[in-house]
Amino acid sequence: MNSTNIEASRFRDEALPYLTSDLPGVGGVIKEADEDFVVEEVPLYEPSGEGTHVFFEIEKQGLTTRDAIARVCRSIGCQRRDVGYAGLKDARGVTRQVLSVEHVDPEKVLAASADRVRVLWAKLHQNKLKIGHLSGNRFVIRIRGAQAGSFERAEAIVARLAARGMPNYFGPQRFGMRGTNAIVGRAALLGDFERAINVLCGGPADDDSPGGKLARELFEQGDYAASLKAWPGGHCTERALCRWMERGSLDWSKAWRSVDRAMRKLYVSAFQSELFNRVVAKRIERIGEMMPGDLAWLHRNGACFAVEDLTAEQKRCDAFEISPSGPMFGKKMTQPKGEAASLEASVLKECGLDLDGRFSGASDRPEGARRPIRVPVQGATCCEGEDSNGAYLELRFELPPGSFATSFVREVCKSVGRAVEPTGCA
């Protein structure tokens, strides 16, 4: 089996242009400790105090939302499917978010205890908490090791982002630890399941863990049984594919269908995100400008509408009532017209896809949606301080749901890294 040679096509967010490219960054690093990255959900509504559901806020540290839910469920004796949540949060950091469960005594929920999870309060409500029942997220992020003069630099960048909005790039976490999720998603959508599987399970790289690198090397050598044994914990998809390949089947399509459907959708979503990022990158200099044929995003409720009177809608855009939207390409996505349509079509063409985004991936073909190319930043401030871990530059800000704090921080830091072509179109 030939090497998948993925290094030249990994997602690297350094390849995306900055809105504040004329302002020098502060450098530094984030997430040296969990306490350096604090996220608090801003609820869409408060629990009423009546009903059969219990809303409760947890504080988790160093755990994904799903891991925290599993621990709470073990403590109160319920199933994970019974727990509602408004959004998923990353493991690294300290997060406060609201969950819900039905037909459980609030006092029992309040008394629940689990390693790295605390229940802060519990109140009754009439409905289950669902994805999207969220107004936004507040962040407190500490940057360590910033350069001299960092406060003045950060202050200028924060002011620009508060005035013009933040580029709504998907952050690198969307593309997986190796930055290859979009490559896998693109290959699957185009029906190239052999490449999808080889990128997922092969392509050893120097920054892989020792166990992961060995497992990938063995997979590329065709020793699937040994690869299966070598995978470190947490690589369920890779191990499932190794079991399938160990049977001797060369039906790559059937092998791909053995992957959990939720994971297949995740890879496809990563490719959609890559395409969206490319559209934002092309519009970065005109991020607050409506184009002929645009579909505008109404920030107060997430509705989209076709721009007909460009002059009138530009005034609303300047007031940040609306913003241009970009594509999450899919079979039911509303297409723009005119200049906006031409720009989005150019991104598809660069990636070897046809104009209407008709992918061949059958059941995994995405529905599609629109997404604002910029988002408002609320309450943005910066300050300097020092704690037991040393000096820091602290950023505080609030973003709408679905936006990535890392997209804000990258504008401030502008850390120099390898500039590599983004993943999806390799």
Mean pLDDT across residues: 90
Strand content: 15-25%
What is the CA–CA distance across the termini? 19 Å
Radius of gyration: 23 Å
Number of helices: 13
Total strand segments: 15
Main sheet properties: 9 strands, mixed
Question: How are the elements arranged and paired?
Answer:
Elements: E1 37-43, E2 53-61, H1 65-76, E3 84-85, E4 94-102, H2 106-110, E5 113-114, E6 117-125, E7 134-143, H3 150-164, E8 166-167, H4 181-189, H5 193-201, H6 210-220, H7 224-230, H8 236-246, H9 252-257, H10 261-282, E9 295-298, E10 303-306, H11 310-318, E11 322-328, H12 338-350, E12 369-372, E13 374-375, E14 378-387, E15 390-399, H13 405-413
Parallel strand pairs: 1-4
Antiparallel strand pairs: 1-7, 2-4, 2-6, 3-4, 5-6, 7-15, 8-13, 9-10, 9-11, 11-12, 14-15
Helix pairs in contact: 3-13, 4-5, 4-10, 6-7, 7-8, 10-12
Task: Outline the structure in words.
It is built from 13 helices and 15 strands. It is α+β, with helices and mostly antiparallel strands. It has 4 domains: 92 residues, no CATH class; 87 residues, Pseudouridine synthase; 85 residues, Hypothetical Protein Yqey, Chain: A, domain1 (Orthogonal Bundle), CATH 1.10.1510; 108 residues, 2-Layer Sandwich (Pseudouridine synthase). Strands 1, 2, 3, 4, 5, 6, 7, 14 and 15 form a 9-stranded mixed sheet that branches. Helix 3 packs across helix 13 and helix 4 packs antiparallel against helix 5. The N terminus and C terminus are likely disordered.
